[in-house]
Amino acid sequence: MVGAPQGAPAPTGREADTLDASEVKRFLAAGEENEARERFAEIVLRHQRRASRIAYHYLRDAADADEAVQDAFVKAYLHLNTFREELPFEVWFTRILVNGCLDRIKARARRDRWFVSRAEHVEEGQGVLETAPGAGPSPEDTLLARERHRRLNEA
Known about the structure:
Elements lengths: L12 H17 L3 H27 L2 H17 L10 H26 L3 H6 L15 H16 L1
Helix pairs in contact: 1-2, 2-3, 2-4, 3-4
């Protein structure tokens, strides 16, 4: 690790992450992409399990949590130039991860609100299109009502 002075005890935990993130930031600024990716891979390995636990806590779905963690690491790498070295990397990254999880929860709620589950309506013997929400009667209901009204008038 380049950030620790000679003879000083090696930084641990949050300090090490922050120093590594600062070093990755310097590598990126210098255009040394390979070194930056290698050093960032070390950070990813250290935080992978913790990040997965946090994401699963929010999302309650393993596949969704894995995607959220991957997205958070990619976003952290791409936006590392905004990382402030005076703050712990772990806190900065966790905020990115949690915000990503909250965005996924909001997107899931929007999807659930707009899409009708096909399984719910198949059990009831109805198709999805027959039960799609609308403000008034369906065109088919309107046509049938007109037809009934015409037949009653003729009778």
